[in-house]
Amino acid sequence: MGLFSFIKDAGNKIFGINKKKAAAKEANTNAKANAAAELLKEEENAALKLEETINDLQLKVDGLKVKIKGEMATVKGIALDQTTKEKVVLVVGNNEGISVVDDQMTVENPEPEAQFHTVISGDTLGKIAKKYYGNPMKYPIIFEANQPMLTDPDKIYPGQVLRIPHLG
C-alpha cells in the first residue's frame, strides 16, 4: 500500500459526490450575488434621488454626481459658491443611512467656510445663535443659512447638522 495523493475537489465534479452540498454552496453564492446586486441598485437609486433633491432645491452644481457605498456618500461637481457646496453636503449627510460624506466638490466663487453644528436635544436656533454669535436674536442668520432645507425655525431635530455661517 502507500500514500496516494488526490486532487481534493476533483471528485465532486467527476463522480457527482456531494452534489447537494455543491448545489447549496452555489445557491448561497447566487443569493449573496443577488443581494449584492440589489444593494447596489438601492444605493444607485438613493444617489439619484439625492441628486434630484439637490436640483429641486435649486442648489447649482455643475456635473453633480452622488455615489453611495454603504454608509458613505461621495459628492462630486462644481458648486456655484461655498454656501451651495455646504448645503449640498448637508442635504446628502442629513439622510438616514449616511454617516460619512466625502465632499469632492470644487467651488467656482470661493468664500469663507461655515462651521457645522449637530443639533442635540433641547437645542433651538436661538440657543445655537447664542453659542456661536453671542446673541440668540441672530437665529434668523442660521435659519436663512439652512434654507431651503429648513422650512420653519422651530423644526430642527437631534442629530441634524446645520450650517453656521461666518459673520463677516
TrEMBL record:
Source superkingdom: Bacteria
GO cellular component: cytoplasm
InterPro entries per the UniProt record, alphabetical: Bact_Kbp, LysM, LysM_dom_sf
Intracellular or extracellular location(s): Cytoplasm
Descriptive protein name: Potassium binding protein Kbp
Matches recorded under NCBIfam families: PRK11198.1
Keyword Transferase: no
Coiled coil (UniProt feature): 23-67
Transmembrane region(s): none
Keyword terms: Coiled coil, Cytoplasm
Chain ranges of the LysM domain: 115-164
Pfam families per the UniProt record, alphabetical: LysM
